[in-house]
User: What shape does this take?
Amino acid sequence: MRVLVTGAGGQVGAAVVRRLHELAAGRRRDPVEVVAADHGLLEVGLRDRVLSLVAGSEPDVIFHAAAWTAVDACEDDPDRAFRVNALGTRHVAEAARLVGAHLVYVSTDYVFDGRLARPYAEWDEPNPLSVYGRSKRAGELEVDPAWTTLRTSWVVGTEGTNMARTVLRLARSEGPLRFVDDQRGSPTVATDLACKMVELGLARRPGLFHVTNAGETTWFGFACEVLRLAGLDASRVEPITTAELEPPRRAPRPANSVLDNAALRLSGDGLLPPWQESLEAVVGELV
Ligand SMILES: NC(=O)c1ccc[n+]([C@@H]2O[C@H](COP(=O)([O-])OP(=O)(O)OC[C@H]3O[C@@H](n4cnc5c(N)ncnc54)[C@H](OP(=O)(O)O)[C@@H]3O)[C@@H](O)[C@H]2O)c1
Assistant: This one.
């Protein structure tokens, strides 16, 4: 089996590549060959590059983790957001059809407006508030129903820029530690997400799945937990509202983007562990 990973240099892409290598190492029959395509190797906005790389490597499964994820910067450059996140996904989908590959697309909790008073299930109506959310939703619409789409949220890991690293960096400075307490979501550890992505993708499971660690919190609650796990003083963290953020963020965020992992739950598939449990290992490595 040959597997191509786009965005292989990013948080999620790198975790998927690592998971695939782990699987490959444990398999004697049906070996897994991994083509890890980072941004340097593959620019998904360029149709010809995507088609030629995919035609040349003839993967059975493509994990499409490449995206422009700078949520605030997307507001200032919607063309780039749509070129990468929507059109880039169209190119990857076209290439997948060309070679008969199964595609796994990673989407986001930011496709929802956050006005629901309960967690969002796969069958709730998206209504993105930001350019990033709209461009990722447009990407979802490029994916065939026979392929796999995963929505996840608040991804943290030991690589790349993420909130666990930001909290620890800020904690080393003298300045105030303020985090918003009016945005709710489910932190998701990249290694857990990658395991489920690989499981669903290699099984060619069709349809849309919400995949997050279990439980929910606010960014304030998340920051306190990171400090607690790092053995630092969590009482330094102050809760603020989104309106009090200085400077204000350009992209609006959903106030509630907790994802009900309903498709996994109702089909009896394993759910990911509570976020605090998985975060412990991440913080352990980061400190
Ligand atoms: N992080 C989260 O909290 C979160 C939450 C929900 C969903 N997601 C989704 O999960 C997926 C992976 O995100 P992530 O957290 O791993 O983000 P990430 O660390 O920013 O990784 C994205 C990767 O895509 C690459 N990339 C950007 N533009 C590209 C282009 N035009 N062509 C090819 N590659 C390009 C980036 O390379 P450069 O850095 O070199 O540009 C980066 O390596 C994305 O689809 C994202 O929307 C993430």
User: Anything to note?
Assistant: Residues 171 and 177 are 7 Å apart (CA to CA). Residues 7, 9-13, 39, 42-45, 65-69, 84, 88, 106, 108-109, 136, 152-155, 160 surround NAP (CB under 6 Å). The two ends are 37 Å apart (CA to CA).
